[in-house]
Design a protein that fits this description.
Elements: H1 12-20, H2 28-65, H3 74-111, H4 129-136, H5 139-167, H6 178-218, H7 223-233, H8 237-258, E1 264-267, E2 272-277, E3 286-292, H9 293-305, E4 310-312, H10 314-323, H11 335-355
Parallel strand pairs: 1-4
Antiparallel strand pairs: 1-2, 2-3
Helix pairs in contact: 2-3, 2-6, 5-6
Length: 356
Amino acid sequence: MAAQERTEKPTAKRRNEARRKGQVANSAELNHVVVLIAGLAAVLVLGRTIVSEAALTMQAAFALASSPHTVTSAAGLHGLLSLALGAVRSTLVPIAGICLAGALISNVAQVRLRPAWSKLRPDFRHISPMGGFRRLFGRQIAFQLVQTLAKVAVVGGVAALALLPQITGVSAAVGTTPGALGSLMSSSALAIVERVAAVYLLIGLIDLIWSRRQHARSLKMTKQEVKEESKSTEAPPEVRAAIRRRQFQIMRARMMAAVPTADVVVTNPTHYAVALRYDGTLPAPVVVAKGRNLIAAQIRRIASEHGVPIVPDPPLARSLYSMVALEAMIPAELYAAVAQVLAYVYRMAGRRRVAA
């Protein structure tokens, strides 16, 4: 039998299970460009401080290295090592920290802060030689290779277009001071990097959209899978029956509590009973209680205890029971029949008041 097509949208359970397994739409390209931009921003902000710290460290290192005892004694080597570690701490650590913060922010913004601990468990299928061979020469690798080459071509083309106008100004820099030449080169490099970063950011956003579409497509389900999941999430028949019984009990209790507020109870006279109330706030009377057999008997008993008139009218009782839902107004085709019943009840009530 042919495999069913995955045409149905994933259910909430399917999405949650995929998220617990770490299967989320995450764009690696966008993460890379955020790290790149964070690193460039760190260099721009901390560049002067880093250069100054590096210069001081190099001066101190040259001063120590100029002494013959430095490279032959433990104290001298310890001093050089301390200078090297201090240089790393003052130059590389701030930039690395900002890049790490950018990577974390990018990942959390894409997939939210919900780690998948299952990814930390070792999976020996990942070190299978045959699996590695299939991954190395699979269709996905070929697609990624083409994607990478296209990305390099686009970014390289933008960098070349930004670099070409700078080449014509090289001759004008002949004879300039080292400081002016460094400033000119840094501004030119910054212009190139800004354009490359902008294009790279656009590529990252496109990759994010593509990743989310592919992820949504991978989570699609067949109609049979949707049916099976719906069956598995439903409550057992015993639980559903208990819920229905409880709902019926609550509805019956509320219905019996409304019988004393009715204006009339229309009966069959023994099989059906429908209680009607008309207070003038609605266009038509409302069915506040209805039932058959035992429930009908209970409605008649409560009506008798509270002095609610009971009028036998079998055709009207059956029509009201079958046509009108509980707490709903009667339909227009029953207006005349119900009006006659209410008129009779009001006349009888008036006569009793006169007789009293």
